[in-house]
Amino acid sequence: MSSSAASQERRCRVRELLPNLHLGRYPTGPKNSLTDVEGVLCHTQSIVRPATSAHGAINTGVTTIVPRRDFFNQACYAGVFRLNGSGELTGSHWIEETGLLHSPVVLTNSFAVGAAYQGIYEYCIPRHRNPESGAADWFLLPVVGETFDGIISDIAALPVTPAHIVAGLESASDAAVAEGNTGGGTGMLCHWFKGGTGSSSRVVPGAGSSPKESYTVAALVQANYGRMRDLRIGGAPIGRLLDDELMAATQDLPADASTVERLAALGRRLAKRATMGLARVGGNAHNQSGDIFLAFSTANDVPVQTNADPWRPQPMAVDVVDEQTINGLFEATADAVEEAILNALCMAETMTGLGGLRVEALPLGKVKQMMEKYL
């Protein structure tokens, strides 16, 4: 199949492409998406503009994740894990210090971190300014993650503005997250193919018989890493097989950039297990790869600010999972991240960007044909 034919293929998620591919033993949520976690909202915006005399081609965007509608007053327990630190996640020091997340999570390009940070404040200030004094007399450290899209987007044009973040927060919903060339993943590359945004979820049954005693683990990835030869699907060396056929016609691209992943789940221990899903697909955490994972749980409402005496310790009732029973959640985390990355690859479309550089989408027809001997 030629690259031009591959670029015209209908895109689909990996489960539709390879219905016999084993992606773990746990069922997905109804949408197989981040928003299967109750209360989590998301919105994606793409900024795509042709080259002009003032700037080159722009292919970038913003993904906005709202852990819960009242994120300002009710925090989530959270944890951060850094597999390789060539990247940025603002607000992570506070999350590591307290284990709490009380900010939206915005994913965008590396040069837009400041605009996204300001945008979160521009959303919160008019809604939470002190009505008597007019002061913003509260504590909020915005959480912004980035990956580099400057290969096929004029990142120096600084197209992302705080207004994009305000719009994303205002429009966030519980609809299934759009995938591929969308949101912060619009201009991302993955294994030398077009990468982008991907998502998946798993439902792990609890010890009780009630559906309410199940646990939903979901992942959203901004996939932007890797070399073609390292790509694996269900353990099959698809990248190596494609390498011989496609490399002669592929323009030179950098080997690694960054992957930022979000897990709506239990904290730092689950964030660590996201690395298993990344490794299954061929992520090796190279030197310039920013592999950063944030996990949060919506199971408990934690007041951000209370009237309690800060000098008199007092207990707070929370529901916690017995750590002796957590293995299923670890497994589901790896499965969801693996599938989210594959969904990003399968849904992304061929894109032509900065300087006319053309990045091909993963050739789904060829992949399906190659996978027949492995399934």
Average residue-wise pLDDT = 93
Overall domain count: 1
Oligomer: single chain
Radius of gyration: 21 Å
CATH superfamily: L-amino peptidase D-ALA esterase/amidase
Q: Please state roughly what percent of the residues sit in beta strands, choosing from under 5%, 5-15%, 15-25%, 25-35%, 35-45% or over 45%.
A: 15-25%
Number of helices: 9
The CATH topology corresponds to: L-amino peptidase D-ALA esterase/amidase
Shape: globular
What's the helix-strand series? HHEEEHEEHEHEEEEHEHEHEEH
Question: How can the largest sheet be summarized?
Answer: 6 strands, mixed
Helix amount, in percent? Answer: 25-40%
Give the N-terminus to C-terminus distance in angstroms: 21 Å
**Largest sheet strand order:** 4-3-12-11-10-9
The first-level CATH class name: Alpha Beta
The total of beta strands comes to 14
Structural class: alpha+beta
